[in-house]
Specification:
The complex is a heterodimer. By secondary structure, chain A is mainly β. Chain A has a domain of 145 residues: Pectate Lyase C-like (3 Solenoid), CATH 2.160.20.10. Chain A has five helices and 36 strands. In chain A, the strands form two sheets. In chain A, strands 3-6-9-12-15-17-20-23-26-28-31-34-36 form a 13-stranded parallel sheet, with no helix packed on it. In chain A, strands 16-18-21-24-27-25-22-19 form an eight-stranded parallel beta barrel. The two termini of chain A are 43 Å apart. By secondary structure, chain B is mainly α. Chain B has one domain. Chain B is 84% helix and 0% strand. Chain B has twelve helices and no strands. In chain B, α6 packs across α7. The radius of gyration of chain B is 20 Å and the shape is globular. The two termini of chain B are 20 Å apart. The chains are: A mainly beta, B mainly alpha. The interface between A and B is medium-sized, with 32 and 35 residues.
Chain lengths: 447, 260
Amino acid sequence: MFRWILTCFLIPMGQGAIWANNILVCPTCPVFSVKEGIRLAGPCDTVTVDGGHFAEGNLLIDKELWLIGKNWPVLDGEGKTEIITVASNHVHIEGFKIENVGTSYTEDRAAIRLQEVSDFCIKNNQLKNAFFGIYSQHSKNGIIEGNTIHGEAKEEVSSGNAIHLWYCDNIKIINNWTSGHRDGIYLEFVNSSTIKGNLSEHNVRYGLHFMFSNDDNYLQNTFRNNGAGVAVMYSKRIGMHGNLFEKNWGPSAFGLLLKEIHDSEIEGNQFQENTVGIFAETSNRIVYTKNNFIQNGWAMRISGGCQNLQITSNNFIGNSFDLAVHTSGADNKFDGNFWSDYAGYDLDHNGIGDVPHRPMKLFSHVVSQTPESMILLRSLFVDILNFSEKVSPIFTPENVVDNQPRMKKWTAASTVKTTNTPLPKALPGKFLQPALNSQEGADNHFK
Amino acid sequence: MFKILKYSFFDLIRSRWTYIYCGFYMLFTFSLLWLSSDLSKVVISLMNVVLLLCPLIATMFGVMYYYNSREFTELLLAQPVKRTSIFLGQYLGVAASLSASWVIGVGFPFLIYGVFGSAQAGNFLMLLLIGVVLSFVFSAIAFFIALKNENRIKGFGLAILAWLFFAVIYDGILLLSLSLLSEYPVEKFSLIASVLNPIDLSRILILLKLDISALMGFTGAVFRKFLGTGLGMVVSMAVLAVWVVLPVLSIRRVAMRKDF
């Protein structure tokens, strides 16, 4: 970055120029084509586009450039082409409306494609009806901030991802709002990146999709009403903090899917009204702490091959089933949570129940054997069954037990604040933060 | 018929037991509302209660009322009044007074806590409706059993057994058969089987309101079609209506033939 400032500002000064050139493009200006504006610009110049509607096909940016939109100029692909292709480092694109990329079954067209570049910034744009929104491949050190990306995807096969990263490093994806695409945010082979404060809703498949991406953090995002929730697969050392997962409903939907995730931390999140809050499969050494699970079908389903889990200091409130565990992993810990259907007592008033709590009900086991028996949920007979199993566990795994159940729920366990109001449409970059500061909530936790 | 209905209704309204029943619900609801002012939680708790208590009380009350008013019934039979109107009038009187106790006992506290301003109004009305329907169904079943049995002890026993069967045993048999038949496609079977039991049916109606997130996890297409759409609601309501009509028709049939 520093080298860039050097080349952009100091070298021109040495040559007698005080500042890099600014080229103004508008429908009534001498330069009335964005393509022409880009062609005229030298390295490190700024091209300012003031209003207007430009349908100029594909715009290739092959030099270091600031491309700034004022008064929302529209770049229209007319459903035929990819719109902006960035093939140079140090490109900044801000303030455009980019529309109508058009579906293709043979190429991955994008509204903005970043092709093997570094140090880019894509900020405050409004993408509408794009096939792929922002597509970044083999790129690094970039910022994607404050964009709104709305598609009209109906089905998986004919839709693209809103933000698609492939083989990238050190990218910051901040405060974007994605909806109506296949995946809201898709990361494949993306390392050391941060995804913060985004809102991802009404996408056909996942709100956020991780594949083979290590050492990433995602925090304070909201994932709502997506086809299947958030999937984190085949990755290591992922931090998930202060996110809100809500209303992911459906036969194979979940708030968060973990598949072959290792050494990760899931802290301060809120899972609300999902069919399954967290579905974990072959995921080892994961810490689940300070999360809120509220009114989910299943708060957590842990299937085979999950070892060394630590599920502590969470709140489980009003879920139809708190836990369904189908693994015999001996090192899993379930201590110190609050369970809203804990029925024990606390004689010594130390805030910890004197009777261990068995969060996995017999019926939860029965339902996983015969899913049809779900129809008997909340039946008196089932309650009697659960009670007798609780007294003397036979069918449910013996080590699924909370030895120190909390009597009162952890206050402010989750660091999430629900935002029910949609983000303002015309104000990219000035989004309400979908979530509160994670650190703040974590401090409140033990008050 | 309406005269007899009116008579039974006001007779029961004056009865101590109706007040106790109504008072119990009112106290219960008030204390729940007082303990947690969150209306939705109270509605959920009451939904669990309604499935258990309404059928039980309706069964007991129905049998009790029939046996206690037997002499009066015999007196009425000697008058030029149609048989069906005597028994249907009495039955409707019992069912109506039970429903009134339920609606007033639960409705009054909720009204004070302002349920109609909240988002829970729909669930609350559903709760009231289910209570009323269950009262009607089970007092009809109770009347039918009492009519069939001269022996009071036997009548009581059978009535309790009927309640126990619908509330607990039926589900046990269903669960057992589901797990025994789990190799086969049992979706339709389980759905039909639970629709046939009025308590299960009411429970499903409640589930549709409350546990939708768990129910959406069904893999089966039949379930999804039934539970995920308005169809489930419509069919459940229709079958509940049948459950009211069917025992009433049986009462009528038995009453016409019975020798006093």
